[in-house]
Specification:
- This protein has helices at about 5-55, 65-80, 80-110, 115-135, 140-155.
- It has about 160 residues and is mainly alpha-helical.
- The longest helix is centred in the first third of the chain and has 53 residues, at about 5-55.
């Protein structure tokens, strides 16, 4: 294998790594978005029902516990910050997707237009950018990464699934 082929293979590795990491971040963002929805909707529904029960003067004794649960959900939401997690993971997924596309276009389309030294410079730049993203983005969780690997394997087997 010559050096150009080696550099193309490095681009493929960066593309694959970025694809899996982007998918894991998309999965984490989706989960955070769902959590944010329920952390906002549940207390709002309980507050609305409480208002109706107060107006109707029909407050069951056990309803106090429901409002306590609502308060706990609200407190948990402010600690967990699902909206913050959603945007961090969504932005991370987008950044890794950009790297994936840059690496793919370099090894599939542009590599033949570069000299070996120019290609080396481009591959190093993409590699350094990828490494910086790994340092700056929130870590993925093992379950999300496994789910991403499984999802991407299914797509590879059935490309029409996308």
């Amino acid at each position: 294998m010559n050096n150009i082929d080696h550099l193309k293979r490095e681009c493929q590795t960066i593309e694959d790594n970025a694809r899996h990491t982007a998918e894991a971040h998309h999965i984490l963002a989706s989960r955070s978005q769902t959590m944010a929805f329920w952390f906002e909707v549940l207390p709002a529904v309980i507050a609305s029902l409480s208002g109706l029960l107060v107006v109707g003067e029909v407050i069951p004794a056990w309803w106090g516990w429901v409002t306590v649960v609502s308060a706990v959900i609200t407190a948990t939401s402010s600690i967990v910050s699902p909206h913050k997690s959603y945007y961090e993971n969504l932005n991370s997924a987008k950044s890794f997707t950009v790297i994936k596309h840059r690496a793919r276009s370099l090894h599939c389309s542009y590599a033949s237009f570069y000299s070996e030294s120019e290609l080396l410079k481009e591959v190093k730049a993409i590699s350094e950018y990828y490494n910086q993203l790994v340092l700056l983005t929130p870590p993925t969780q093992e379950w999300a990464y496994r789910k991403a690997v499984k999802k991407l394997a299914e797509r590879k087997e059935d490309p029409d699934k996308e």
